[in-house]
Write a structure and sequence with these properties.
CATH class of chain B: Alpha Beta
Largest sheet of chain B: 6 strands, mixed
Oligomer: heterodimer
Helix content of chain B: 25-40%
Helix content of chain A: over 70%
CATH topology of chain A: ABC transporter involved in vitamin B12 uptake, BtuC
Radius of gyration of chain A: 21 Å
Number of strands of chain B: 12
Structural class of chain B: alpha/beta
Strand content of chain A: under 5%
Shape of chain B: globular
CATH topology of chain B: Rossmann fold
Shape of chain A: globular
CATH superfamily of chain B: P-loop containing nucleotide triphosphate hydrolases
CATH class of chain A: Mainly Alpha
Number of helices of chain B: 9
Radius of gyration of chain B: 19 Å
Distance between the termini of chain B: 49 Å
Strand content of chain B: 25-35%
CATH superfamily of chain A: ABC transporter involved in vitamin B12 uptake, BtuC
Distance between the termini of chain A: 7 Å
Order of helices and strands of chain B: EEEHEEHEHHHEHEHEEHHEE
Number of domains of chain B: 1
Number of strands of chain A: 0
Number of domains of chain A: 1
Order of helices and strands of chain A: HHHHHHHHHHHHHH
Structural class of chain A: mainly alpha
C-alpha cells in the first residue's frame, strides 16, 4: 500500500482532497482538450463560448469558434468523459464482486456480443428497423451485447439461482470465444477488405461519431450509474472477505450480485453501442485508484469515475490529433497511455512492501 | 432465571444428497457460552453458518430470542448475530481499522450522515480484542493471530446479541487463546463457539454440545458431557477426565498407543 502508513483520519481527508483535485483537473482537461485540434482555440475563448451558451452576456465570440467548440468538439469531449467514467465504474464494481483483479467491464461477454452485432450490420448488412448507418451499428452492438449477456447469465446461473463469480467469469470467456470465432469467420468469408478494416476499427473503439444527443445520453447513463452504484458502496465493501462474510454483515448477496452484474453489464452495453469496445480504462483505472486511495468503495467509486473521465478525454484527444488528418483507434491510445502509469505504480508498490 | 436465547430444532442440512446435519436440536441459554465439539467433518461449521442465517436448513428451525433466524431481513439479522469465520482472507490492502469498520455496515444507512459514525463502537471493540495499536497496519502485514483478533473486533463492532465463533483460538498462542475466551465469556452476550481443545472448552463453556457425523451425541454441562467414554466414542482416543490436582479444573488427559 502506498499510503498504508498514514493515519486513517488523514487518509479520509486525503480522499476528499484527491477528489477535489481531480475535479479541477477534469474541468481544466475539458477546456484544454476542446481547444486542441486542427484549428487551435485558446482556453479563454473556449470558456467564452461555453459561458455564452449558458446565457451569459459575452462579447467577441466568433461564429467559427462557437461552431468548433460547441458543435464539434465539446460533445465529443463530454461524451469521452462520460464513457471513461462509466467504464471505470463498471470495472471497479466487477473487480470487487468477482474478487478478480482481471475483471473488466466486458466480463459478461459484452464486447464479444457487441462485436457480433456490429459485424452483422457492417458485413452482412443486417438492417435494424429502418435505422441507417451509425444508428444501425449502435443498435446492432447493443442487441448483440444483450444477447451475449443473457447467454452468459444462463450458463452461469446455478440451480439455486445463485451467480457464482468463478463460473460467471468462465461463462464470459466461453461466450467471448464463440463470438470471436463468428466475427473472424464472417469477416474472412465476406472477402470485403473495406468491411474488414471497418470491423477492426470498430473493435478498437472510436468517439468520432459523438454529437450532442449521443453525448447527453452517455452523460445521463454515467450519472445514473454513479448514483446507483454509490448506493451499494457499503455492500461492495462487505464482499472484501468473501460471500459468507458479506452475508453475515447483512448483505443479501444473491440480490446484490444480480443487480450489480446486470446493471454494470447494461451500463457497458450502452457505452459500447456508442463508442465500440474501448479496452484498458475499466481494467486499470480502479487498480490505480485503489493503489493511491485504498479499496473502500465510498472513495474508490467516485475517484475511479473522475480518473476514467480524465484519462478517456486525453486518450481521445491524442487519438484525433496526433496524426494529422487521421484518427488513431482510441483503444490503442488508452493502452499506450495507461500501461506505463500502471507499471510504474505496480513497481512503486512492490518496493514499498 | 435463565431465558433461552437460541433454540435449534430438528435442523437438517445436506449438499448434493449427502446429509451433513441430521435432526440437530439444542438450546443456548441467554448470556452463556456454548461450546460445539466434534471431530473434523462432524458438521460444526455448517451448523454455525445455519445458526447465523447464512444458509437455510433443508428442515427444522433456528430461533434467536423467539424469532426465526431464516425469516429475519438480512440487515436486522446482522445487527443481532455476528460470526467470526474460521478462515478470513482478502486480497485487498485494507487497514485493520477499516476491517473493523466493516462491522458497522448493518447499522449504517445507504448514505452515511457522518464520517465518524460508529467511532465509539469501533474503538471499544478494538480495545476489547486488544488490536487498537494495529489500527493503521495493513491487513496483509498482520500475523495469523492478529488477523483473528481483528476479525473478532469486527464481529464485536456489529454489537450483536449473539456471537458465533468458528474455531476462534486458531492461530492464537496460549496466552491469547485464554485472553480471547475470557473476553467473550465476560461479555454480556450469548456465545456459541466451535472448539477443538477439550480443556479450553471445559474451562470457558457453560454448556457443551457434541456432534458426531451430523448428530448430537451429548448436550449438557461440561462435567456431565466430558467423560472418558464420550472422548473414546467421539474421537476414538482413550482419556482420563478429572479435576486437576492444582487448579481443581476439569482436565482431559489422553493416553494413546500412537504415543510411546
Amino acid at each position: 500500500m502506498l499510503l498504508a502508513a498514514k493515519p486513517a483520519r488523514r487518509r479520509a481527508a486525503g480522499g476528499l482532497a484527491v477528489g477535489a483535485g481531480l475535479s479541477i483537473v477534469l474541468v481544466l482537461t475539458v477546456v484544454l482538450a476542446v481547444g486542441i485540434g486542427s484549428v487551435h482555440v485558446s482556453g479563454a475563448d473556449v470558456v467564452d463560448v461555453v459561458l455564452r451558451r449558458f446565457g451569459l452576456d459575452v462579447d467577441d465570440v466568433t461564429v467559427i469558434d462557437d461552431r468548433i467548440v460547441w458543435q464539434l468538439r465539446m460533445p465529443r469531449v463530454v461524451g469521452a468523459a462520460a464513457t471513461g467514467a462509466g467504464l471505470a465504474l463498471a470495472g471497479a464494481v466487477l473487480q470487487s464482486l468477482t474478487r478478480n483483479d482481471l475483471a473488466d467491464p466486458y466480463l459478461l461477454g459484452i464486447s464479444g456480443g457487441a462485436t457480433v452485432g456490429a459485424v452483422s450490420v457492417i458485413v452482412l448488412g443486417v438492417g435494424v428497423a429502418g435505422l441507417g448507418g451509425t444508428a444501425a451499428l449502435g443498435a446492432g452492438a447493443f442487441g448483440g451485447a444483450l444477447a451475449a449477456l443473457v447467454l452468459v447469465l444462463g450458463l452461469a446461473t446455478g440451480r439455486s439461482g445463485d451467480l457464482p463469480p468463478a463460473r460467471t467469469v468462465l461463462a464470459g470467456v466461453a461466450i467471448g470465444q464463440i463470438c470471436a470465432a463468428y466475427t473472424s469467420f464472417v469477416v474472412i468469408m465476406s472477402g470485403d477488405h473495406d468491411a474488414a478494416r471497418r470491423v477492426l476499427a470498430w473493435t478498437m473503439g472510436s468517439l468520432a461519431g459523438l454529437r450532442w444527443h449521443s453525448a447527453t445520453v452517455l452523460v445521463v447513463v454515467a450519472l445514473v450509474a454513479l448514483v446507483a452504484i454509490l448506493a451499494c458502496a457499503a455492500d461492495l465493501d462487505a464482499f472484501a472477505f468473501g460471500d459468507a462474510s458479506a452475508s453475515s454483515l447483512g448483505v443479501s448477496i444473491r440480490k446484490v450480485r444480480w443487480l450489480l452484474m446486470v446493471g454494470t453489464a447494461l451500463l457497458t452495453a450502452c457505452l459500447v453501442a456508442y463508442t465500440g469496445a474501448i479496452g484498458f480504462v475499466g481494467l486499470v483505472v480502479p487498480h490505480v485508484v485503489r493503489l493511491v486511495c485504498g479499496p473502500l468503495h465510498r472513495r474508490l467509486l467516485p475517484l475511479s469515475a473522475l480518473t476514467g473521465a480524465i484519462l478517456m478525454i486525453w486518450a481521445d484527444t491524442a487519438a484525433r490529433s496526433i496524426v494529422e488528418g487521421q484518427e488513431i483507434p482510441i483503444g490503442v491510445v488508452t493502452a499506450v497511455l495507461g500501461a506505463p502509469v500502471f507499471a510504474y505504480l505496480l513497481r512503486r508498490e512492490s518496493r514499498s512492501r | 432465571m435463565t431465558t433461552t436465547s437460541i433454540t435449534v430444532r430438528d435442523v437438517t442440512w445436506g449438499v448434493r444428497g449427502r446429509t451433513i446435519l441430521d435432526g440437530v436440536s439444542f438450546d443456548c441459554p441467554t448470556g452463556t457460552v456454548t461450546g460445539l465439539l466434534g471431530p473434523n467433518g462432524s458438521g460444526k461449521t455448517s451448523l454455525l453458518h445455519l445458526m447465523a442465517g447464512l444458509r437455510r436448513p433443508t428442515g427444522g428451525t433456528v430461533h434467536v430470542a423467539g424469532q426465526d433466524v431464516h425469516r429475519m431481513p438480512a440487515r436486522s439479522r446482522a445487527r443481532r448475530i455476528s460470526l467470526l469465520e474460521q478462515h478470513a482472507s482478502t486480497g485487498l490492502p485494507l487497514t485493520a481499522r477499516q476491517v473493523v469498520e466493516l462491522g458497522r455496515i448493518p447499522h449504517r444507512g445507504r448514505w452515511p450522515a457522518r464520517r465518524d459514525e460508529g467511532a465509539k463502537e469501533i474503538a471499544g471493540a478494538m480495545r476489547l480484542s486488544e488490536v487498537s495499536h494495529l489500527a493503521d497496519r495493513s491487513w496483509q502485514t498482520l500475523s495469523g493471530g492478529e488477523r483473528q483478533r481483528v476479525q473478532l473486533a469486527r464481529a464485536l463492532a456489529q454489537r450483536p446479541e449473539v456471537l458465533m465463533l468458528d474455531e476462534p483460538t486458531n492461530h492464537l498462542d496460549l496466552s491469547h487463546q485464554l485472553d480471547l475466551l475470557a473476553a467473550v465469556r465476560d461479555l454480556d452476550l450469548t456465545v456459541v463457539a466451535a472448539l477443538h481443545d477439550l480443556d479450553l472448552a471445559a474451562a470457558f463453556c457453560d454448556h457443551l454440545v457434541v456432534l458426531r457425523e451430523g448428530h448430537v451425541v451429548a448436550d449438557g454441562a461440561p462435567a456431565d458431557v466430558l467423560t472418558p467414554r464420550l472422548v473414546d466414542e467421539v474421537y476414538g482416543v482413550e482419556a482420563t477426565v478429572g479435576p486437576h490436582a492444582h487448579s481443581g479444573r476439569l482436565h482431559v488427559v489422553w493416553h494413546d498407543r500412537r504415543v510411546r
